[in-house]
Amino acid sequence: MTTNEVWEWIRFACECNGRSDIAGRIRLEWSNRLTSSMGNASKKAINDYYVIRLSIKLFARASDEERRQTVIHEACHVIDGIVNNTRMSHGSGWATCMRRADSNPERCHTVSNAGLVKRFVYTCSDGCVEHAVSARMHNSIRRGKNRVCCKCRARLEYAGRAS
Question: Which fold is adopted by the domain 3-100?
Fold first, then answer.
């Protein structure tokens, strides 16, 4: 998938939600640092624009459909944030935007990140999955940000350093 194709999906999500003007407020970045998530979206308050960051490493491993879903997913965060004046979350406004763009409102991807650098291991309190996370996410959790398992939604608990 090329950058032009990514922009096509961003514009598609905006048009499906009746807000083609939003695409002009989005900046696209490719990241080598993202190794857990396929992408993320954030607002830059200073200039009132939004950034969609996509993982170079995970995009290389993903199918065309997984890439498409990720781009639409992140674009819908931006659309929801602007239209509903909300923080970027996986709430009902975001889910509605996803459905309008003919996509399932799913939170987590299934692309394998095996072999990518992960330093810390967390388990969910239900024990269904082991999560290897980056130092950045580990520090975020340590500062009090609650993170939950994307399968069972139970809180993540520190299990030790990755081997």
Answer: Zincin-like (3.30.2010)
Q: 123: closest CA among 77, 65, 70, 162?
A: 162
**Residue 47 structure tokens:** 């200039």
User: Which residue intervals of the chain bear CATH 3.30.2010.10?
Assistant: 3-100
Asked whether the whole model's pTM tops 0.85, one would answer: no
Per-residue pLDDT of the chain (163 residues; tens, 9 = 90+): 789 999 999 999 999 999 999 999 999 999 988 888 899 999 886 777 899 999 999 999 999 999 999 999 999 999 999 999 888 889 999 999 999 999 999 988 889 888 776 678 888 877 788 887 877 788 888 898 888 888 888 888 888 877 6
State the DSSP string of 97-109: HHHHTT-------
Cα–Cα separations (whole angstroms), residue 89 to 57, 95, 111, 158: 24, 10, 21, 24
Name residues whose C-beta falls within 8 Å of residue 114's C-beta, 6 or more positions apart in sequence: none
83 within 8 A of 19, measured Cβ to Cβ: yes
Alpha carbon distance 65, 100 (integer Å) = 17
Residues 6+ apart with CB under 8 A from 153: none
Contacts with 18 (C-beta within 8 Å, 6 or more apart), sequence order: none
